[in-house]
Amino acid sequence: MAKEKPIMNVVFVGHVDHGKSTAVGRLFYDGGSVSEQEMKKYKEEAAKHGKAGFEFAYVMDNLKEERERGVTINLSYKKLMTRNFEVTVIDAPGHKDFVKNMITGASQADAAFLTVSADGGVQPQTKEHVWLLRTMGVKSLAVLVNKMDTVDYAEDKYKKVVEDVSAVIKQAGYKPDEVPFLAGSALMGDNIANKSDKMSWYKGPTVLEQIDKFPAPEKPTGLPMRMPIQDVYDITGIGTVPVGKIETGIMKIGQKVIVLPGRSGTGIEGEVRSIEAHHEQLKEGEAGDNVGISIRGVAKKDIARGDVICDAAKPAKLVEEFEAQIAVINHPTVIAKGYTPVFHVHTAQVPCQFVEIKAKLDPATGQVAEENPDFLKNGDVAIVKIKPIGNLVLEAVGDNPNMARFAIRDAGVTVAAGVCKSLIEKKL
């Protein structure tokens, strides 16, 4: 079966309770991907849990624990067909203890909807998510001003949110005049898949129309094959199945691969035996595809989430140390030399130490503002030298931008985000 439409990965982000899951559920229901029966079942269940009005969120929050708590924990994936794309929608958690999943989601997205409620406006996580999207390289951004029903569909309330959000996204380096702002109500179904009749003043697209307006993702198929492992399953009759998104390149059946670092820390060699996406067997998978694969010669005990499957002829590098540009988003005090937080790189989590703060940059121009500062604080952009404590697979942004980005987390908070500029390879 030929792939007819390009795949577009769209992530919904934003502060907790601003209606992301409801927006996504409404999109699937009104877009025809969820049946009447299923919806009825969700509605009954929502009422049973004392969560009336949460039925749309249940479309994505299909884990029992999430239903009872009414929050999104895991990343949920579901497919939607639009005019231009086959869309994989990723509903990313807003709760701050779930930000690490949010990072994984953002790193897989081609486009994002920042969801901001009309009555809540900009919140701490609204800012954090914008910076993460930016650092993770999500270029296509749209803003959904949600819950317009709570402010009686008033244009002035919408305009106020647009103004506040514009300031936040501008600071992160997006151009507000190039970012579409949408007015809608996910709960009531206004401007999600269907046009609203309650806001004659709003002339923009619905969420569904906006997805088709995003530029088709450019597939980095010309770069060497890289697939960070998201999960590893043991499937009867098939064996060990690593699952993840092919970030760059093309994966073919029979291809020789190396899994880095692997349990050994020096890589495990194998050969691609089968590739499957959405329960279909593929001859090859390419950048952007979420796949499950089986590899001859690789057992479940050898590999784990965070390892990267590479083309054996052109593997990625294990890093001794690297130089990076980072933006400090949310640190309670200051960052100095010796600081050792956890770096989230593709699907890996590795503690890394700041060994040198080389320069502070002017965030607006990128020019050096101060050489060798003693510390960094919120809002600073800097060039730093980092040493991983353990095995880390990373590439420089000039070689492979898809494998160069990371977020830095400490005590449950994203303190900074950045990109690798250059690295020294670890000698094995």
Secondary structure topology:
Elements: E1 7-13, H1 20-30, H2 36-48, H3 55-60, H4 64-69, E2 76-81, E3 86-91, H5 99-107, E4 111-117, H6 124-135, E5 140-146, H7 155-171, E6 181-183, H8 207-213, E7 226-235, E8 239-245, E9 250-252, E10 256-260, E11 268-277, E12 280-282, E13 284-286, E14 290-296, E15 308-311, E16 317-328, E17 335-336, E18 342-345, E19 348-361, E20 368-371, E21 375-376, E22 381-388, E23 393-394, E24 405-410, E25 413-425
Structure explained in plain terms:
The protein is of the alpha+beta class. It folds into three domains: 7-213, P-loop containing nucleotide triphosphate hydrolases (Rossmann fold, 3-Layer(aba) Sandwich), CATH 3.40.50.300; 226-311, Elongation Factor Tu (Ef-tu), domain 3; 317-425, Beta Barrel (Elongation Factor Tu (Ef-tu), domain 3), CATH 2.40.30.10. Helices cover 19% and strands 36% of the residues. The protein has helices spanning 20-30, 36-48, 55-60, 64-69, 99-107, 124-135, 155-171, 207-213, and strands at residues 7-13, 76-81, 86-91, 111-117, 140-146, 181-183, 226-235, 239-245, 250-252, 256-260, 268-277, 280-282, 284-286, 290-296, 308-311, 317-328, 335-336, 342-345, 348-361, 368-371, 375-376, 381-388, 393-394, 405-410, 413-425. The strands form five sheets. It has a six-stranded mixed beta sheet, sandwiched between helices. A six-stranded antiparallel barrel has the order 7-8-14-11-10-15. Strand 24 and strand 25 (413-425) form a beta hairpin. It is globular.
